[in-house]
Amino acid sequence: MKKLQDRVAIITGAGGGFGEGIAKHFAELGAKVVVADLRAEAAQQVAAAIESAGGQAIAVHVDVTQDASVADMVAAAVKRFGRLDILVNNAGTTHKNQPMLETDEKTFDRVYATNVKSIYLGARHAVPLFRQQGGGVIINIASTAGLRPRPGLSWYAGTKGAAITLTKAMAVELAPDKIRVNAINPVMGETGLLADFLPGADSEEVRQKIIATIPLGRLSKPIDIAKATAFLASDEADFITGVALEVDGGRCI
User: Which CATH number do you get for residue 219?
Assistant: First the structure.
């Protein structure tokens, strides 16, 4: 029996980066995957790749900042697979690494809506379903920025601090319903957002400065995050809730 055999999982932001890695790894472990992304074509490509590899997946277009869109996403999972067991709130965005007052209000609102409001909306529509089913799992992809902020990413760091605190608060409140809530804190990784995170232009020199702050000597990879997320989603973590697991090569030590 595979670790996630026949579990139904929604992964938001699964059209690329960490989300794509999580979706593909979950499918390899036997999960039925809802590949949800604002980029419909990207979601379709990932779902098609999973199916081509022998897994089960559907693509869903979602805007995680909009209540109706999140409701439709959850409904699509139930319509196709009959239930929902796991919600991975992975979709996220950032502002450019820059002095804090150079981030305009529109960008600030977008980052907080994508990284924080999405957790609220996901809970609004997944938790009632989990309660009906007798339990479920929520995993929020936060960041080491929520614990060890870097200069130039203040507002982004604030969203990830919120994600970590929400994870712990939700875990306590939802424990009587057998709903486990955990978070993953990745260090800076090889994703489409990397250029925005870096202080300056994306160059080998700048990357090496970041890598120098990570004791294990490299950036994170999608498979690193996927393996940790799969563990927290599985029965192996049945007694773990409210944890924000650092997958960071030692960055937060």
Answer: 3.40.50.720
- How many other CB atoms sit within 10 Å of the CB of residue 175? 13
The one catalytic residue in 18, 81, 130, 156 is 156
For 137, 139, 189, 199, the CA distances from 238, given in Å and listed in that order, are 10, 13, 28, 39
Neighbour-count burial of 236, counting CB atoms closer than 10 A to its CB (0-12 exposed, 13-18 middle, 19+ buried) = exposed
Question: Is 173 a domain residue?
Answer: yes
Confidence check: pLDDT of 218 > 90: yes
Q: What residues pair up with 32 in beta bridges, in sequence order?
A: 8, 56
Q: What is the pTM of this model?
A: 0.96
Q: Is residue 253 part of a domain?
A: no
pLDDT band at 201 (very low <50, low <70, confident <90, very high): confident
Query: Is 156 annotated as catalytic?
Result: yes
Hey, which residues does 9 pair with through a beta bridge? Answer: 33, 86
With bands split at pLDDT 50, 70 and 90, how would you rate the model's confidence at 112? very high
Average pLDDT over residues 122-136: 98
β-pairing verdict for 32-37 and 56-61: parallel
- Total of domains in the chain: 1
User: Does 42 score more than 90 pLDDT?
Assistant: yes
Residue 54 and residue 22 in contact, taking contact as beta carbons nearer than 8 Å: no
Residue-number span of the structural domain to which 163 is assigned? 8-246
Dihedral in degrees, nearest 10, Cα atoms 57, 59, 60, 63: 110
Residue 222, Cβ density class (10 Å: 0-12 exposed, 13-18 middle, ≥19 buried): buried
Q: Are 129 and 84 within 8 A, CB to CB? A: yes
Q: Are strands 136-141 and 8-12 parallel, antiparallel or unpaired?
A: unpaired
